[in-house]
Amino acid sequence: MTKEKEPPSERTLDDDVPELKDYLEPGLKVLDIGCGPGTITLDVAAVVKPGEVVGIDPSKDRINTAREWATAVGRGGNITFQVGDSHHLEFPDNTFDVVYSHTVTHFFLDPVAALKEQKRVAKKGGWVIASGVHDIASRYPACPNWDKVWGAWVLFHESLLKRFQSSGDDPAKHLEQHSEAGPGSKAPWPASLWSPILPLSQAILQARTALA
Q: Which of 29-43, 48-62, 125-139, 186-200 has the lowest mean pLDDT?
């Protein structure tokens, strides 16, 4: 007996973004910004069928995973996955009925520019929806040590944004680095900030060193 393949993510439309279903109906054209491995995207495609869904993500690996999973479960008929940059969407104006992102907006290098792009490709009368937006700068009670980490993070993020703006480089490359970074990674991203194996002082030092 063949063991059923495990999904690449436990995320589902019903469990993670149930409120999105209020904006979905058969026949709509939907864009999923930062689709990741595509498990939620596939659920959206099932709801809007025979409408179309496009899922974009800056990570080639995640897009490949999403395509493979769609093929494995036989649900790729009305869905397309492609590598894309949320700051420069490769779609004409007024293309989608719904443009949504879930737990993504806080990763944008330039959130305002990205949201303007989403509005541009949304149809007049359509929806631009950002859910699961994390604001880790707001917290209670106060945590002085976390303030230091957050300060280093903001400086690093602003530095990257300035570099990309001045060089004209593709912001998706920064997001690609983020998706691939992890403990021990040499990518210029302070992934070590989130690693429990590093002391706080070392994490802050590595983040500030990246600014040089």
A: 186-200
Q: What is the CATH number of the domain that holds 99?
A: 3.40.50.150
Q: Give 1's pLDDT tier (boundaries 50, 70, 90).
A: very low
Strand order in the sheet with 96-102: 79-83, 52-57, 29-33, 96-102, 122-131
Instruction: Quote the domain boundaries for residue 101.
Output: 13-131
Residues 72, 117 within the same domain: yes
pTM of the model: 0.69
Looking at 62-180, which runs of residues are DSSP E strands? 79-83, 96-102, 122-131
Same domain, 118 and 19: yes
**Terminal-to-terminal C-alpha distance of the chain:** 56
Same structural domain, 23 and 58 = yes
Do 208 and 152 form a contact (C-beta atoms < 8 A)?
yes
Task: Evaluate whether residue 165 is within a structural domain.
Answer: yes
Residue 181 near residue 187, CB atoms below 8 Å: yes
